[in-house]
Structures are given as C-alpha cells and as structure tokens.
Write a structure and sequence with these properties.
With 304 residues, the protein is of the alpha+beta class. The chain has two domains: 42-163, no CATH class; 169-304, no CATH class. Helices cover 20% and strands 10% of the residues. It is built from seven helices and ten strands. It has helices at residues 2-21, 49-52, 100-112, 127-130, 191-198, 225-228, 278-284, and strands at residues 78-81, 87-90, 177-179, 184-186, 214-215, 221-222, 236-238, 253-255, 275-277, 301-303. The chain has a two-stranded antiparallel ribbon. Strand 5 and strand 6 form a beta hairpin.
Length: 304
Amino acid sequence: MKKAMLVVMFVLAVAGLMMAQNYSSPIDVLGAHNNNGRGCAGCHAPHSGSFGSGHGGKADAGSYALWGQDASPLYGHTIAFGDSGKYTELLPSTITGGGTEVGGILLCLSCHDGNVTPHNMMADQSYEQRINLLKNTAYGSQPIPTLLGNDGTGAGNYTNDHPVGQLANISTTTPGLVWSGTAFSVTSGTPYAKFVANYGWPALAPGKYSSPYGVTTGGKPYVVCTTCHNQHVMTVYTSTAASPIAGDGGGKFYATYFFVNGPYDPNINNVANTNAPSTTQFCRQCHFGESNEGNNTNNITTVF
C-alpha cells in the first residue's frame, strides 16, 4: 500500500512538472501591449517616430528603436525610487544613442509614468485583472495600477516602487553568483547553483540578444525595468539552454503574469510549506539572503 502511494505521488509530481513545462497561454501573449488593437506600432512606429503614431513629440523621440511614443517630457528628470526616495535616478537627456538606461527605464516610463508623460492609451489597471485572468482573490478588489508616477497615492510618487537605475545595485557577493564586470555566471556546487536547480535565474542569466541589467562606469550591475519584465511577452516564459528552469534543459514553457521575465504564477495558491511558489522564487534571484538555499535548506522545490 505504501509503495503504491509513493508511485501515485511520484506520477502526480511528474505530471505537475510536465504541465508547467508545456504551458499554453489562454490569450495572445503580447497581452496588454497589443495596445487596444494598435499592436506593435503602439510602441514601435514603423515610420516617423512619435509623429507616425499620432503623438507628434519632439523630432528625436523617433530616433531609437522606431520608438512611437514621446519620451521628451522625461528627459533629464530625476526620479526617486523606494525607501523614502533614496534610490535616485537621473534619466538621460535624450534617447539618441540608446543605452541601458534608455531602453530599460526611460522608454518604459514614457508610457508608464502617468505623471510627467501623458496617459496615452493606458487604462491604469492590470490587464490580467481587467480581463479576469487573475483569479487569486488575495489581490483584492481594487484596480492594480499600471501608472507608476500617478498611481493614486500622490503625484510623482515613486517611493513605493522597486528601485531601478544606477544606485539600485545587484549584489555581487552572493555565494556562487559570480560577477565578471560585464556579466553574471554561476559556480557549480554552490548555494546559488542549488537555487538555480530548484528554480532558475532568468532575470540575471545573460540574454540571447542583450544583458538584462545595466552596468555603471565603476563596473557595478544595476536593476532596470527590463531586468524583471519582458515587455514583449506577457503570459509565457520560455526557458533556454543558457537559462534553464529547474534544470529543464531549455525550450519549455511556463506561466507568467505582468510581463514578468521568468516563471511567475500568482494563480497557484495554497502551496505546501515543503515547496516554494514561483512568485517567491523569482524575487530570490536577487534577494538571495531570503532564499531557502541561502539559509542551508536545499530540498524545497518550486511549484510552477
């Protein structure tokens, strides 16, 4: 009887893992960034930059990645993030020339600021919540805002937002997470390697086309919006050989929400205390001191 029970439990565990690896989105994966039917052109105007999208901002608003929104109101602004605003970020004075602070912060805020920039097409409510894709009732009944600088808590308030920018440094002392000065790597057999085996490191692993973080002139890595978010895929995270999830080898599909750049499923609740939810594990990539593996506990696997 005990042997049969163990077999059933093993089959169920494997079935749950396979379901996670083969997740299929119930909606178009671009989700909210379909921009009420405008599609890719809502951000990337094929011609004439912000003029081509009907916003008509300054001429240089279209000089980076076919950008179709007007970022000019944000140029040169200093924004104070988190913890009473101690993480200040001076935004670039132009988008010409690009760079991580442009593509990873400034262009995101050209839509998501809501205080300095126009609201554009944004409804200021989480898309997943608005279309009833978010089923977890723990989120409450109030709209989850998508505008940061104008979120209903005071004009220009960024102190309740996760820090980004050159002062929001990623720790380079995490045991097993090695910083070379340009990229992260993981040393096998270390506490961080055990965390990667139980979850992964999708927000910090070197990307196929770009690094998901910025690097200061002093060689320190720092968080940008696109460290935690993939603006092009809202509902699915696809693992790769360079960034496998829980050792899956790459090429597997996992549920994610809010454009999070990794497996992140808040609809899976009531997770047993012998496992960890993906919503907790994602944050532990950087906040490793609060992880199981950072506290000598290595057998807590992730529920995806």
